[in-house]
Amino acid sequence: MGSMNKIGIRGDQEVTMAELMRGHGHLWNIIFSYVNSMALKCAAELGIADVIHRHGQPLPLSVLLTKLSIPPSRADSFRRLMRLLVHSGLFSSSTASDEEGEAYALTPNSASFLVTSKAENMSPFVLAMLDPVMVDPWHCLSRWFVAASEPPTAFDLFHGKSLFELAGNNSELNVNFNSGMAADASFVAKLILQQCGDDVFRGLRSLVDVGGGSGTLATAIAEAFPQTKCAVFDLPHVVASLQGNPTVTAIAGDMFEFVPLADAVILKACNWILHDWNDEDCVRILRNCKKAIPPKEEGGKVIIFEMVMKLENEEDGSIHDETTETQLLLDVHMMAPVPGKERSEAEWKSIFIAAGFSGYSFSPILGLRSLIQIFY
Ligand SMILES: C[S@@+](CC[C@H](N)C(=O)[O-])C[C@H]1O[C@@H](n2cnc3c(N)ncnc32)[C@H](O)[C@@H]1O
Description:
alpha/beta, transferase, methyltransferase, single chain, S-adenosyl-L-methionine, 18% strand, Arc Repressor Mutant, subunit A, S-adenosylmethionine-dependent methyltransferase activity
């Protein structure tokens, strides 16, 4: 009965104690959601999935502790970390037959994405995205909103330069960031080649991956379509690692100044080519892409792999499926390290038109991302 008492006013509605308790719990859930990210980071740093993968499943807690060199004094803390990671769906737990307590196994998610010997290993991406260099600027997001000097991003406000400038001066960040991007790119390259490889790439004589990082996608395309000459175009400190690569040509430069000539230009946002930038910058990049390719009749196209925001409303007007939440998180994420954003189909179209393109197609065939092809 007590929980039904009206105890406060929200707008012109009375709030019950039960509602207040639910709201309080919800607030706590949001406050501590970052613990999920940090628990995942800890799992990647410790290599928990590797140990379970290597030593058989399910692996008793005591064996896991020994293999990870975690002392018995930390056993209870580690068990609690694993309990959260089990709840997140990254591991499963069962009772060990030898009465040692829990035993842990991989789930499809950790088996696919956290085992470092596998092609789809996303651990470098986890570590790059959750590195203090990337996370620290979030502490000054509110200062950035009201900053009188209007720095382009919270990252610029915190570090005094942009992400790509800092990566050019800091070799550790450069290597970690590029490895993180390459990890995601290698999974996405597989997805792209399987889902639309033939339709998109067959018959192309040449192709440039603009902002192509350390060349993971371009290399995968070059290997699948050996008749296509593939190049990676990126900033000098990024393509330096590709010099002498027999599969793809490395071209250093600034996409705001020019894009090298080719039949097709790829812009793949692993996290960030067009979605790294504001609308005006996207138009500048795309105008340079247009200059680099022939018209549609001669096979020219810009191939873009980006997210297309589609916010589905539930019946009650709320939006809470995981894909929607991921899109919303990414959209806000894009304002902290770079001056970017996620865009709806209508927002994409207006950028393509402003850059002088007359045709486009959207294919939502790549999970979180869509294949977008644009022509003139
Ligand atoms: C988020 S990463 C994406 C890398 C790669 N496309 C992938 O999906 O893994 C963005 C890339 O854009 C590159 N970049 C940033 N500014 C650039 C510029 N002005 N000209 C060329 N490349 C640039 C960065 O160096 C980085 O490799």
